[in-house]
């Protein structure tokens, strides 16, 4: 029997909302091609989608199927199907594993995914601001932590220096500085 995880609430955008999706995780002995996908809105492992694609296409068209990427999977492996999913999620197996940030960035910037991009797994308040910068817009935080406290993580900084998915221009391109004429080198005023 597959492991089904359900969050009562998630952060979507910048507010706490009810979550009507469940996340399917394979048990060690289960095979992607034979696992039973439960009814309702389900976010599947990429391997299950790839193994059962033809069977699940109708449900995906009805907005009932999402897919999640493990930290060691490439975003490009589902590039032809991204438009079929109501939700795409990226799993963070542990707090210190940052590979999911690259997956999110690639989904948004290189593959042009515009739908809901959700962080799942070991998601904590300290990560939310950077996750948002990489393209995430929904967060299923750890259930043993306060979701209201985690929400504060999205507004921890008021300004960013670097360009990213949420702000394509770096700070020095966004603000005009008063630079004396004697400073004509390219780095003056930064």
Automatic annotation (TrEMBL):
Pfam families cross-referenced by the UniProt entry: DUF934 (PF06073)
Source taxon at top rank: Bacteria
Protein known as: DUF934 domain-containing protein
Native source organism of the sequence: Massilia norwichensis
């Amino acid at each position: 029997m597959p492991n089904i995880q359900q969050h009562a609430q998630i952060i979507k955008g910048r507010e706490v909302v009810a979550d009507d999706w469940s996340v399917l995780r394979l048990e060690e002995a289960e095979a992607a091609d034979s696992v039973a996908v439960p009814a309702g809105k389900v976010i599947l492992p990429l391997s299950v989608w790839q193994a059962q694609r033809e069977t699940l296409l109708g449900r995906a068209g009805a907005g009932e199927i999402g897919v999640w990427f493990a930290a060691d999977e490439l975003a490009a492996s589902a590039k032809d199907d991204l438009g079929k999913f109501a939700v795409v999620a990226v799993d963070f197996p542990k707090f210190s594993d940052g590979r999911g940030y690259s997956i999110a960035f690639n989904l948004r910037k290189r593959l042009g995914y515009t739908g809901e991009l959700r962080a799942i797994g070991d998601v904590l308040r300290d990560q939310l601001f950077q996750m948002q910068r990489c393209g995430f817009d929904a967060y299923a935080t750890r259930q043993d932590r306060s979701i209201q406290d985690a929400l504060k993580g999205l507004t921890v900084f008021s300004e960013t220096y670097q360009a990213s998915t949420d702000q394509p221009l770096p700070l020095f391109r966004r603000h005009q500085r008063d630079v004396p004429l004697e400073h004509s080198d390219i780095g003056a005023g930064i």
